[in-house]
Amino acid sequence: MTDISSTASVATGKPARYGKQLASHLGRKVASEWDPEVEQGWIDFPNGGRATLAAGDGVLLIALVAPDAEARDRLEEVVGRHLVRFGAQDELVCTWQRTDGTQGTEHRNTED
Q: Looking at the whole model, is its pTM more than 0.90?
């Protein structure tokens, strides 16, 4: 079986803060880690999926790997929804690019 993957590059002035917050928040229910020294982390999900996080210069890079398309779709939703909620004041937008060529999802805070 081949893993299915998706990536997002989320523009933000605080990539390490949001990476740490995402790993910490989701880590209440699943295994996760954030290393502040290298500003990278990961989140493991029970469906066999994993999100890797890396803070870059003005961007939080997220890579998802899932065992199938259904799991990938769910991880895009969970990770994207949480991230844009945390970054509502910064108007974060999380747009997923899928390696299989299908249209990825986009998450943005729509609350007024």
A: yes
